[in-house]
Amino acid sequence: MHPTARRYRRGVHRYRFLLSRQWVILTIVAIALIPTMIRLGFWQKHRYEERTARNDLVSSALHAEPVPVERLTSPGHAVTRTERYRTVTATGTFDTAREEVVRRRTNSDNEVGFHVLTPFVLTDGKVVLVNRGWIPADGAQTAFPKIPAPPSGRTTVTGRLMVDETTAASGIKNVKGLPDRQVMLINSEQEAHRLGAQVLGGYVEQTAPMPKNGSPEQISDPGSEDAPLNYAYMLQWWLFAAGVPVGWWFLVRREIRDQEQAAAETEPKETEPAAV
Questions:
Q1: Which of 129, 152, 235, 269 is deepest in the core (most CB within 10 A)?
Q2: Long-range contacts made by residues 55-63, C-beta under 8 angstroms, separation at least 24?
Q3: Pairing, β 87-94 against β 112-122
Q4: pLDDT tens-digit profile of 170-199?
Q5: Any transmembrane segments, and where (predicted)?
Q6: Which residue, 55, 16, 34, is CA-closest to 245?
Q7: What is the DSSP string of 106-130?
Q8: Helix (H, G, I), strand (E, B), or coil: what is residue 3?
């Protein structure tokens, strides 16, 4: 046999193990993993872009100049993504007689309590809902808690404009039959029916004036989502995808080396002829 043909047959024989059941399954899995990891990388890329855009939107809203609340919302208005977190001002009086609390809300330390929801009557008679902040749930939650009083008389409040809460968006079930003046969600349409008044869409998370003695505890700003983490995951998945064929080839080379070593150990050793 020609030497070239002999070397070719020897090379083919070296890779014959790739046709075994074990190696066929391993190769199929490796081939399937590559596009899967590439798609996961693109998914993380989309998440990174979404979170970056959301962070930019929130940041621009928080740093925008304050505007009167009625410039952005009105009775029945659904607060939009670009209006959410905008700093707004409102001038009027707090209606503490029809104040409510929002159940099962946590503060920055994850303590369970209430959010204080106070109707704020504007100079034209319309109402905007003001979330004055968080108070602890001392004792049984069936009783209406003691709430620090807001400023009396005509005052101006500043805060972040927020969208109406719904079960679909928040995951909070709107439980019926709660104790008097307690709710699960902050919803302007629901409050308009209760108050019998024109209630501006959405509500305001109060940031000023600061409450006396720090109570109610003000709600912290939304902060930013960890978009760089998604970017890191994107690179990680794509590195994994690139590493699969490298790892597969490494395993192939190791298998060939192990076979050659085993073959060398089983070959009979040549013995020197005995001296005469």
A1: 129
A2: 55/224, 55/225, 55/227, 57/81, 57/82, 58/84, 58/85, 58/222, 58/224, 59/224, 61/85, 61/86, 61/87, 62/87, 62/160, 62/221
A3: antiparallel
A4: 899 988 889 999 999 999 999 999 999 999
A5: 23-43, 231-251
A6: 34
A7: E-TT--EEEEEEEEEEETTS-EEEE
A8: helix
